[in-house]
Design a protein that fits this description.
With 184 residues, the chain is of the alpha/beta class. The protein contains seven helices and five strands. Strand 4 (139-144) and strand 5 (147-154) form a beta hairpin.
């Protein structure tokens, strides 16, 4: 799948350019109904230059397939385009440096539903400050980038790798997002 809204490989808007291998732009169809947004690329994503291609990506792919939806039918991206050192959470300035790229991707694809993968994304895009266990699987009306969306919160698939008990909630949240997008 070809990256959408590709960013020049010489981008230096923040300090993450010093440690990355590749900029990881979002991937998906030209037009689609839902975007799955993660926090930042991991090691595998940094090496391949594509979002959610490692173990977390396989969990996302499995949850989509379980719902009867192909990865090629959805848009997948991250808040930031470069891997933070040591897989730490992206800092405010780093998220701000990439925000315009995210806005452009969302506008170009015409998504109606955003599935926020993980606490960082939920807090950043939805502005909620509740525990993740109280948020997952819930839909929120949000106004983002000058437009109204439905946002569904899911555990980040990486959390499910370490806490298998979260996997059913993750799969249910993916299904809820797909239902909100009218894809089920």
């Amino acid at each position: 799948m070809k990256p959408r809204g590709a960013i020049p490989q010489d981008c230096s808007r923040c300090r993450l350019d010093r440690s990355r291998n590749n900029i990881v732009s979002g991937v998906g169809p030209r037009k689609c109904r839902i975007a799955f947004i993660g926090e930042a690329p991991g090691r595998d994503e940094d090496e391949r230059g594509e979002p959610f291609v490692g173990r977390s990506g396989r969990l996302l792919d499995d949850a989509l397939a379980e719902a009867g939806v192909s990865r090629d039918e959805v848009f997948i991206t991250n808040l930031v385009r470069c891997r933070p050192p040591g897989n730490r959470r992206p800092r405010k300035d780093e998220k701000g440096a990439c925000r315009g790229f995210l806005v452009k991707e969302i506008e170009e694809t015409g998504v109606e539903v955003i599935c926020a993968l993980g606490e960082t994304v939920a807090r950043e895009l939805i502005g909620v400050d509740e525990r993740m266990s109280d948020l997952v699987g819930r839909a929120f009306p949000i106004h983002l980038f000058g437009k109204d969306y439905t946002a569904v919160v899911a555990y980040h698939p990486a959390a499910c790798l370490y806490r298998r008990d979260k996997l059913p909630s993750f799969r249910n949240s993916v299904r809820c997002g797909l239902e909100a997008a009218g894809m089920l």
